[in-house]
Amino acid sequence: MKIDNSGSKEEKESLFTKLAENEIYRKIIIVVGLIGIAFIFLSGLFKSDHTEAKTVSSPTEVSADQYAAQLESKLTDIVMRIKGTGSAKVLVTLERSTQYVYATEEKKSNQTTQDKSDGTTTKNEANDNTETTYILVKGADGAQKALAVTEVQPIIKGVVVVCDGGDDPVVQQNVISAVTTALDITSVRVCVVKAK
């Protein structure tokens, strides 16, 4: 038994021929094709932005000492630009190091039991359980690590600025204002003294 497909091929060819000969259909096909190409181009742009965001969002391991050293360097540069300070040295102390908040998953279960005896006494017992687990992801090396959601910067305990103009009240106030604004801390945490 042989199936004749020649009729269906002729129908397909005549349909394509009709579409190609009709000017309105040709324009529609061209517009649809251009829209498809535009979507492919745009998806390529979004895909590359998404991969860049992944690499940027991964937490960088910066120790508390490195963080304090970076702050000291930046603050020294700023303080030395204030009129009347002269040469300066800055010390930043931290309360704690950088902390990471990790993604967790909570499973809650409630269990209630009721005991009745002789229809007069009822005893209810409720048992609530909560289980918290960290969400793990595989790294490039195959090791599993907890998924970091956010990074909490170290808290600044205090700043000491030693500069040549540290005995001038105007210079002291300018330095304190600059440091408190830069670090978003209170002026109580900043000490400005004159260098010897």
From TrEMBL:
Q: Where is the composition biased (Polar residues)?
A: 110-126
For this protein, the parts annotated as crossing the membrane are 24-46
Region ranges (Disordered)? 106-126
Q: Which UniProt keywords apply?
A: Membrane, Transmembrane, Transmembrane helix
Q: Output this protein's name.
A: Stage III sporulation protein AG
What organism is the protein native to?
Caproiciproducens galactitolivorans
